Amino acid sequence: MTTTFESQRTALADVVAIPVTPFAEDGRVDQDAHRALLRRLLDGRVTTLTPNGNTGEFYTLTPEERRLVTELTIDEVGDRATILVGVGHDVPSAVASARHARELGAQMVMVHQPVHPYVSQSGWVDYHRAIAEAVPELGVVPYIRNAQLTGARLAELGAACPNVIGVKYAVPDAARFAAFARDAGGDRFVWVAGLAEPYAPSYFSAGATGFTSGLVNVAPSVSLNMMEALRSGDYPAAMKVWEQIRRFEELRAANGSANNVTVVKEALASLGLCRRDVRPPSRELPEGERAEVAGIAAGWSV
Fold first, then answer.
1. Close Cβ partners of 141 (under 8 Å, ≥ 6 residues apart)
2. Bridge partner residues of 143 (DSSP)
3. What is the pLDDT of residues 179-225, one digit of tens each?
4. Cβ atoms within 10 Å of 245's Cβ, excluding its own
5. What is the C-alpha separation between 203 and 150, in angstroms, rounded?
6. At what angle do helices 260-270 and 287-299 cross, to 10 degrees?
7. How far apart are CA 237 and CA 228, in angstroms?
8. Kindly report the CA angle at 230 between 229 and 232, in degrees rounded to 5?
9. At 1, is the pLDDT very low, low, confident or very high (cuts 50, 70, 90)?
10. Distance between CA 183 and CA 35 in Å, rounded?
């Protein structure tokens, strides 16, 4: 029987939450806070979660911590949401993480962009193919941040690996995305706007049906309101939400996204939901900027 991955494809065409990884005072993963934040997302009607994503500080976590985050998430979520586990680094590490996710019952893995100074386009295909072929039962979602990659290469990967079912596209260029998606095969993949709410309206107009979100950790209803507007084709309503989250996302994007995770954790800390701690090379917000983030978070219906 050929796996169709229909439920996984449906889950990608939604708000794909990237949970934060809260840290305790001793620097370890705060397991109780992590579970509480996950429950908050679930209670907020979020149904697709990506543990070990960039908002979860994937690259600062040890291999043991990444396994722990996967285990905590799958255990806490149960059957209340679809889990898309972030994997990456070298091929053996990514494969081991994907198999670990499969053993625990995850439905999909998202493959972080290869961390290497020299990425050839054919090598990109080889990298993802090795991971996808190791877990044929799981849906696989490449995370694309490389503006040089062509849609033809994704089409090549998709032809070789039927379980590559979606794409998290995070190149900040809506016209490039539109061309890339059509060159790759359009409806063959579920397209997820990987630059979150600020880019979701423009990417939806070019074929995306889902978007990732770090903001959803703070205000699930705000992200879901944008999804509802986009699904109905009500772009004026979507842009009203866009205006509502604009300053928050500008703060996250400033200085090459230096405070991308920092701002989210600061907002959560202002609501008393977790500590503000982030790991290097990120850094906590200066005291003078914290009030603005707290004010934004307090103004949302959370």
1. 12, 84, 108, 109, 110, 111, 164, 165, 166, 167, 168, 192
2. 168
3. 999 999 989 999 999 999 999 999 999 999 999 999 999 999 999 99
4. 23
5. 17
6. 70
7. 9
8. 70
9. very low
10. 41
Q: Alpha-carbon distance 196 to 47, whole Å?
A: 16
Measuring CA to CA, which residue among 49, 45, 21 is closest to residue 33? 21
Tokens at 164, concatenated: 């590559």
Q: What is the pLDDT of residues 34-78, one digit of tens each?
A: 999 999 999 999 999 999 999 999 999 999 999 999 999 999 999
**pTM greater than 0.90 (yes/no):** yes
pLDDT > 90 in the chain, percent = 95
pLDDT at residue 2 in the model: 55
State the burial class of residue 94 (Cβ atoms within 10 Å of its Cβ: 0-12, 13-18, 19+). Answer: buried
pLDDT(175) > 60: yes
Judged on CB neighbours under 10 Å (0-12, 13-18, 19+), 96 is middle
* CB atoms inside a 10 Å sphere around CB 270: 18
Other CB atoms within 10 A of residue 257 CB: 14
Report the distance separating Cα 61 and Cα 69, nearest Å: 9
Q: From residue 252, give the alpha-carbon distance in Å to each of 269, 284, 290.
A: 16, 12, 13
Give the Cβ contact number of residue 297 at 10 Å.
Answer: 22
pLDDT at 270: 96
Query: Could you give the CA distance from residue 140 to residue 84 in angstroms, rounded to a whole number?
Result: 9
Rounded mean pLDDT, 6-27: 97
Q: What are phi and psi of 215, to 5 degrees?
A: -55, -30
Rounded to 5°, angle at Cα 46 from 40 and 51: 80
